[in-house]
Amino acid sequence: MQRHAKTGGSSLVVEDVGKTFGHGTDEHRVIEGLSLRVDPGEFVCIVGPSGAGKTTLLRCLSGLIRPTSGTIRYGDEPLTRPHADIAVVFQDYRGSLLPWMRVRDNVAFPLEGMGVKRAERNRRAEECLHAVGLADVGDKYPWQLSGGMQQRVAIARGLAYEAPVLLMDEPFGSVDAQSRFDLEDLTLSLRADLGITVILVTHDIDEAVYLGDRVVVIGGRPTTVVDNLQVDLGTDRDQITTRADHRFTDLRTRLLTRIREAQAPAERTPARPEPKPAPDETPGGGTAKDGIPKDSPAREKTARAVR
Ligand SMILES: Nc1ncnc2c1ncn2[C@@H]1O[C@H](COP(=O)(O)OP(=O)(O)OP(=O)(O)O)[C@@H](O)[C@H]1O
């Protein structure tokens, strides 16, 4: 596949966003004061405790739902509805592929609603199926393929929009472990080949570190950004050596710690008893829970990044 003309597209900027569902006694404030910026060509993974609002945030980014407060901008434009530059791949291929349509038509189908002519729809479907390693299955039906292959079809359909931004919501959650590794590597190579921006929601911390240039942790009540980790593992990643790298395991430890901290205390399973405070753990000085001295410039830097 060729690089898109609009490689990477524009920045997505989330400013002070809140999202509340329901009204009155049913009101549920899920997200509040959440700010985030994703620049063209970045691969950003979003992790957080279950129910934190990861899918809600991704749906806001896709323009499918509107935030209750704050703004989301794509470049200079306010994002208030689905945008031609932003494609979405959902988690469950079983719910998103149409069983009565051949694979090629499943990939091409959404383009019809966008006014793309038949010949161009078919060209894109063939090209995208080729890109995900399924050049030979266009005539089959989804139910004739394995789960991993069906999820590749769902990715091909996302690519067929030729959008510079791809949002992925737990895209590999329904497949076996080996297919998951293969799909992760496929996503990395598509991103490298096409130069697209990817924002991927996942429950899997290792997956987030393996894929992302950056991992954003969301959590708290209501949810906001609680950490923003740059992943310093280069672009040449490998399922065996990258995952064994001490930088990988250090990042995973930090992420797990931050996600546990972001959970409400009642939801947390204490790993071990809280240690007694050391003599120098006095307010305004000494070392905090995360190991960074309270008056360290690094703490101020982290706080700024999260803000
Ligand atoms: N349309 C809706 N109406 C009412 N509440 C909703 C709606 N969509 C999401 N919620 C609520 O918002 C909260 C966050 O849901 P969301 O699915 O975004 O979380 P998540 O972090 O993706 O969860 P998980 O990790 O378990 O998939 C949940 O309490 C959910 O019940």
From TrEMBL:
Gene3D superfamilies: P-loop containing nucleotide triphosphate hydrolases. Pfam families: ABC_tran. Residues 12-245 form the ABC transporter domain. One of its GO terms (molecular function) is ATP binding. Transmembrane segments: none annotated. SMART domains: AAA. Keywords: ATP-binding, Nucleotide-binding, Transport. Residues 269-279, 291-307 have a biased composition (Basic and acidic residues). CDD domains: ABC_NrtD_SsuB_transporters (cd03293). Residues 260-307 are annotated as: Disordered. This is ABC transporter. It comes from Streptomyces aurantiacus.
